[in-house]
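User: What would this chain look like folded?
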Amino acid sequence: MRYSYLQSMIFSREYIGYLARRTTKHLVEVKLIQTKQPKLVEERVTAGLIEELSLEDRINEEVRVILDAYSEEMRKSGAQYAEMFKKVKGELARKYKAVL
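Assistant: Here's the prediction, encoded as structure tokens.
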């Protein structure tokens, strides 16, 4: 499985894998889950962690695309890129129900 957003995330692939292993082990130990395939569970937990941790990266990229489309209007109106980035990012976070 390839995780394109992993490169810009704050955590390394190794650390996310470690978190997934520890989480899976803990869930089994406290009997919240049962599995005969712990490696498969670890892979799925890893994928879920990466999905959640990369959400902000994906939102930032979407903000850039949106602002690029409106760059001429922003220039004409004197809008500040950083301010608009923050506003659009907040709107997208609400849209995706993300906590950033």
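The chain has two domains: 4-53, 55-95. If you want, I can go into more detail on any region.
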